Amino acid sequence: MSSKDSGKQESTILGVAETSVAYGPDVADSADTLAAASNPQYRTLNLARLAEQGMLTQEGGRSSVAEDFRIIKRPLLRQARASGAEAIRHGNLIVVTSAMPGEGKTYCAVNLAMSIAMEMDITVLLVDADVARPSVLKVLGLPPEPGLMDVLLDPQLAMADVILKTNVANLRILPAGRSNKHATELLASRAMSRLLAEIASRYSDRIVVFDSPPLLITSEAHALVGQMGQVVMVVEAETTTQHAVKEALRQIEACEHIHLIYNKTKSFPGNDYYGYGYYD
């Protein structure tokens, strides 16, 4: 992982691996079954299967991926918790995006949320805001559910009605919900601004990670990124062109706190093992 400070923008480069997986139904143990019976918003994640597919879990032990995300989350958490003159507006709202599809942004968003959930005094809400092509629930092995779009479309529907609790104690999930042809306008609406303000301020110990659409493909990403305190842009190693990266960064140049994740790398100069590198 590389960290460089240029003006007000911080860039963080991280090498991680991505795995393509096939998903099936989860198998809940007795404790999870009881929890689900008493709470209709409770969902059981098959952590063993996620770990087998290379995803980060609390039971996964020490791995290169776990170490990658321990490093990448530190500056994000530090800025989210900043106070006084260094406080960032909506600093606890972190959006994960990319220039183009297929660069691994959902993989990074889910693993970042999982890593943050391991903190002792923080809860994390993982929001699937890629409303045109939602994939967070698929990655986690869950079926589609009502979520963000439903709350924006129905004033009578509370966010608490669609947030899912999980068997990861500090992890909550807000699905994308139903698709809508006016998704860009909904994400740029006053209702969305009010929702983000509520999410950012209601729980002081909560970090919110948004999986966003790609910047160069959809207009929804711009409506969303502009309202976030911190931006994480995923760059696919040896695939994403320099032009695409520069154009994506140009489109979000008004954002002061931008981090880069260098994803799908198989080696990093200066390291003896597969994983990450850190440079000042």
From TrEMBL:
Enzyme Commission (EC) number: 2.7.10.2
GO molecular function: protein tyrosine kinase activity
Entries under Pfam families matching the protein: AAA_31 (PF13614)
AAA domain ranges (all copies): 93-255
Taxonomy, superkingdom: Bacteria
Catalysed reactions, semicolon-separated: L-tyrosyl-[protein] + ATP = O-phospho-L-tyrosyl-[protein] + ADP + H(+)
CC annotations in GO: plasma membrane
InterPro entries: AAA_dom, Bact_polysacc_biosynth/exp, P-loop_NTPase, Wzc-like_C
Keywords for the protein's UniProt record, in alphabetical order: ATP-binding, Kinase, Nucleotide-binding, Transferase, Tyrosine-protein kinase
Family: Belongs to the CpsD/CapB family.
Cross-referenced NCBIfam families: pepcterm_TyrKin (TIGR03018)
Descriptive protein name: non-specific protein-tyrosine kinase
